Amino acid sequence: MEHRPVRVGLIGAGGIAGGRHMPTMRELDGRLEVVAVADVDADRARAFAETWQIPHSYGSVSELLAVEEFDLAVVCTPPGAHRDAIVACLQAGVHVWCEKPPVLSLAEYDEIAALERDGGPYASYVFQHRFGSGAARLREHIAAGTLGRPLVAVCHTLWYRGHSYYEPEWRGRWTSEGGGPTMGHGIHQFDLALSLLGEWDEIRALTGTLDRDIETEDVSMAAVRLESGAMLSVVNSILSPRETSYLRFDFTDATVELTHLYGYDDSSWRWTPASHVAEDVAASWPPSENIASSHAAQLRVLLDAIEAGVRPPSSGVDGRRSLEFVAGLYASAFTGRPVHRADLTPDNPFYHALNGASVTEEAHA
């Protein structure tokens, strides 16, 4: 059965919209059609529409929703504006694909999830590293147990962002960005790690603001015990001139490593069998097709889900996992105590604000 193209409304006309999302959607031309763009700066929206030959532009989300009919909103605003845009679109019956980080708190995330309905609309989030063939193949092995039990894992996001990166007023602030490299950079890597290894149970963390003039951290470190019993080391930094993203998974029968920067293909993976594993068995482990991690790889899966009327990956409970990890890391770092996943309930201040700001104080501010 032939489907009509999914109609898309783009929200936010900044760098990520033009640098990543429009090229991605052009790559999938025929499966979708961008019908309009909205931005709080109407002139920027108009110029963006002219550049990308988008038929209509608007100066607000409310105007966009009042005039246009579309199936999917792609949200590319700064993080502090995610919640309002997602809520408005879901209430209008429109699916959402939102850039990371999802929102600024677990409370906001759960408020959004309560607006979803069986069959849609759903809100899903950009975690494109899950969708490369290397990750998909490793996920199959973990489910089948062919590599043995997961025991030890490493997840390091060692990136560099200079002082000028934080010149935009919204960056590096709790109320507008929600956190530092834990929230905005490392989240891609530990989302992939947790999507492979499962839920975490306990986290012990430190954060520091060592060199950048910002409210949030510029580096964080965490030791994590997973529900499976495996242990995970996580480092998130924007202070590292030689940038790398490195993930390592040690199973009883193999080590699997991923080294890349902002995206990977199968050449970025290394599969090393333990000495007791036969060579012919190990030779069957890597994937047989090379699909790079990318926005396009995730968007294809999302469009399939919309057309089938089913929940897409990286939404609901599956999309919440990484934000919950961020909340746990900050809670441990701020309190100086280990934090269990079960601790992050609505009566916990870190459920309402990732820096644990008092809800009562905010209400009376």
Automatic annotation (TrEMBL):
Keyword line: NAD
Domain Gfo/Idh/MocA-like oxidoreductase N-terminal: 6-118
Xref: Pfam families: GFO_IDH_MocA, GFO_IDH_MocA_C3
Domain GFO/IDH/MocA-like oxidoreductase: 137-254
This protein's record includes keyword rRNA-binding: no
Protein name, as recorded: Gfo/Idh/MocA family protein
Organism for this UniProt entry: Georgenia deserti
Taxon lineage: Bacteria, Bacillati, Actinomycetota, Actinomycetes, Micrococcales
